[in-house]
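Milestone M4 deliverable, item 7.
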Amino acid sequence: MISLHHVFGCVEEIVSAFAEYDATAGFPLQHIRVFQQVCREFKVVIASRELNPLCTDLLLEGYAAKGFHIKAKTCDERFPLAAGFVPLVPQFTKAQQNIEKQKSALRDAIENHGARKVALVISDQRFEKLKAKGLISVGQVKGGVIEIGAKSRLGAEEFQFSVTRHAKPGYWDVWYKSRVPVPSFGHDAASGSEAEKDGWKRLYVMGNPEKTGRSDYLDAVCGDYDLWGIFPHESTPDLGINNRPVPTRAVLRKDSKPHLVRRATEGQIIYREDDLADLAKKHEHPNLGNISVGVNKIRFSLNQLCRPGGGPVVMHSDYCGNPFGEIDFPLIFFIPALPSGSDVIITGDEYRVAKNVGDLRTSLREIKCKGFLVESYLNRKWSIPNYVAGNNRLSVG
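Output delivered:
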């Protein structure tokens, strides 16, 4: 049995509808164990961004993880039947997401990157959990159509929802009615009576360009595990983590002085903002981003162990190697136990959740004290205020 310790200070107020996953940044226990296993195998600390807790059960049920080119946000609990998916109704998104931006991201994924439209089907398990959480209520039943009420009344005047039994026992087709215009994206995967019935329209969600090869409904994408950074132990041979197609460097602002731009460019220590997108387009992997062989080996191991034969859950490179990557919270750090032959002995696997810059500083300092390499594996464009490693202040933004 793997020993797991949540060793990060106090726990902040839980706000997620699926509170059982809040303390682990959306990670279920079985995947925490997988990440720890891979950390031990490679002798690295892996940090990941939060998985939306609304997506956790969906990922465990086998739904596809959201691919690299789908930038549209997953839906929140305000529209619970679609929560955790990426609906093709732009209004069904996160509360803080701009609807026009969501619409643009949906259109870009379909028209420019081959993303597909998948009719939304949810399981009895998901349906019952939404009811148990008080997020939905069962209303009028008419001709096999069950009208569904939502706990949140936001959007209730514009949208109605219902479910009908899917052809496969134990599953539900999801339908909606709209009193406001809903944009069309490409061609529907179903047509005629399959797409519309008695004024109800099938709810479509986003699917990756490639099919999973399993049940069609599982092609609907939910969240994925966004690797944030990988920090090898000082005793580990070079894994090639930083050997990336586009080396990460700081970025000069457009208003920087010409002589600074010239000197920085000549020294190859910095990028001009205007050049960064062109460099990424020319040199990054088209579907995995700015990934190195070392990161891809770790990604492959995580995918094989998290969901053998069931499709990947880590879809692209890490944010420490992303020329456009930002620091986002919460983050979860997986810190492995190390064998006694290592210079620094860690006796038990740990995970830590960093919810703010202060937590992040503490986590980075502590993994450095355990012998993991930090500064040279962080994104060069970032600045972490007041992060001090040894006698050197890290400020690279």
